Amino acid sequence: VIGVDSEKSAIDDASANEMLNHKPNIDFWAMDAKGAKKRLADDGKKVDVIVVDPPRKGLSAEVIADILEIAPQRLIYVSCDPATLARDIALLKEQYDVKVIQPVDMFPQTVHVETIVLMSRV
Question: Which residues are catalytic?
Answer without folding.
Answer: 80
